[in-house]
Fold this sequence. Notes:
Radius of gyration: 23 Å
Number of helices: 18
Shape: globular
Number of strands: 10
Distance between the termini: 60 Å
Order of helices and strands: EHEHEHEEHEEEHEHHEHHHHHHHHHHH
Oligomer: single chain
Helix content: 40-55%
Largest sheet: 10 strands, mixed
Amino acid sequence: MERKATISVIIPAYNAGKYIRQTVESVLQQTYPDVECIVVNDGSMDDTAERLADYTDNIIYIAQQNMGRAIARNRGLAQASGVYVAFLDADDYWAAQKLEKQIALLETMPKVGVVGCGGYMVTADGERVRELIAAPQAHLAAGSEGLARLLTLDYSLAAPLSTLVVRRDCLDAVGGFDAAINTMEEWDLLLRIIPAWDIACAMEPLAYYRGYGFYTPAKVAPRRRQDKYIEIVERALSRPEGQALQADLAQRALALAYLRGALIEYAVDQPAAGRQRLALAAEQSPQIFAGMSSTFGTSTAYFAAYLYDTLTPLAESLAFIDKVFANLPTFLSRNESLYPFTQQLVWKIHACDAYNRGDYATVRRLVRLALRDNPVLLKDRGLRSIFAESFVGRRTMNRVRHWKHILNAHTAHVDKG
Length: 417
């Protein structure tokens, strides 16, 4: 029987005692046969070390002073012997077939340097909150087009880093993790990989990511996180591959970074800084603010709906929108169509989330409220569909669609005859 290539799984752990055993167990229970598990204790001050004591025969354990996740991952990478490398945050965990399915893609697609997957965002107690969609498509080719699609958010893998499996050769070629980037490391890594290596994705949820609510005003972390995002985009554009991009694509990438930064500023009650970053975004690419269904309106709606990683209560989502639109720069405050569009999209996001959870009573309530405020939403086919299904059930609606398809096909045949 042919021996499978080893995969090294690197887990940086800082004060991870509450979850570390579940995380390690999810690695040891993988169906892929040759897995090397490396845990780097990054100066934890809790009981992380004690909780790992039972695994000394099954893992490689490294202890260091607290130096941050990037350095911890590079330390683990230096010890890794695998042909492939996967990264797992110490509070996340995997489905048992994750590595097997991703490595199957790597072994059949030699040009692919990294494979992602979908996942679920879960609460601290492991309750599923929402699905993290894997990617818009299963494959993204290397080169300038791939870089442009990543930078302009036309293609994105489900975050975070816990979803990725990377060839060791690919990691060595791009230099591992940048110690200066300790947030959004996966984004920086993908932008350095795509110029020379394809990206692929297993299009199913195989990872479980814990969300804790990064965007509450009481926390400073989101502002630092978004500042790194802008820095990462600027770095990517400064490299030869980035400098070769068309000017409008580079400007759109920067504009989107400033837009995301602006929304963070509003979330932490810094409206002046938010207005400033929106102005910077407009200088780079005014097109993202054009039209009723603009990138600005859509981004604001989704940000408002997921302020706390998990779905935000509707009243708080709408209050965030009110805060943003009450503090817009002058060039945006004159656009009277943006506010109702953004508000309507938040209603729709909440209704769709309730539908996906099977909470049909909430779907009916939200859609009725949305239609009361704006009857034009009846033109939205998706909203009409979930509203109808909330009364008769998904199975009945699928039967209706099936017979409608047959009737349409029959009518077309008769008309042709």
